[in-house]
Design goal:
Elements lengths: L10 H20 L9 H18 L1 H4 L1 H17 L1 H22 L6 H17 L3 H15 L10 H24 L3 H21 L4 H32 L6 H4 L2 H12 L7 H18 L24 E5 L11 E4 L7
Antiparallel strand pairs: 1-2
Length: about 350
Amino acid sequence: MSYQLRNGETVGDNLSRICREQIEAAISVAKDEVKTDDTPVHEMRKHLKKARAALRLVRKEIGRGLFREQNRCLRDVGRLTSDIRDAEVRLQTVRQLQEVTQRNGRGAYGKLEAMLMLELENFMAAFAEWQTQAVPMLEQAASALNHWTLDQFNCKQLSGAVQASYKQARQALAEATANPSAENFHAFRTRAKTLWYQLRILRPVNPVVLKSLADDLRSLADLLGRAHDLSFLGARLRNEHGKSQWQREGHNRAISALGLRAGSRSGKANQHTRWRKRSSLRFSRELWREKPENFSFLRLRIDIEQGDACFRKLERSASQSRNHVGKVRFVTDQHQSF
């Protein structure tokens, strides 16, 4: 399974294959046919997000009706496990807080962890049939791929679809900046992750540049995700009656410590972590600085010329760097074969 474009396939065939592979992988997870490094719920949901990101690239070409039907189906499968996943995230976040407090010589959150573990077990028991429900829904989504007509789907349309994802993420960033609520930042993270997945699909077009951009988007999504998890856990515990165990155990210092640690991917000292967080946020503002109409395929120019056998790179500007992407020219044959 390869979540990227392949040489020798048309653009349309590539995207159909990618979407089908992710749906079939989700079915395998739901059927317990594969071993996963993560929980089955989380693993399946990752495949669903990848499939929906690919689906958005062909939104116009397959028609709004079919797009809405398939997108709704994949979304509803995800919702079957949303309560279980939320409980997993809360428990995981508390365990991360325990790591911080134990290193600082403070008490652990044993009672809180036990409470959230019980909560997770209750959700798993309440939604024990999620796999039975998910499989036929996913099989229906896979069958619907047979109705895709992407014979005429070309690079210009692909570029426009990526541009639309960029525009949506830019709008979400503006809303989060104007009103920095947890909900708005979560919406921005969702849009940023969609763009990240789509850049992963396009990586063979220019591996160096697109990998760099995708890596930065992933770092940003991880940072926003950690902040969301803490906010999500805090909101859950504030709903407890009276003064909660969370409050009695001095959570503010732990949150600050984990927040500092969240920005670091290499375990460096905390004084460097603040710089990393600011750097990630500066990058997000720089990445979404341009207006969508001036943002042509992440500053990648695709020229479609007839006569060549397949995509090949012609030219890349020497000015390309991690935060500055120059123009790249590619050519393809009349069938848009990769």
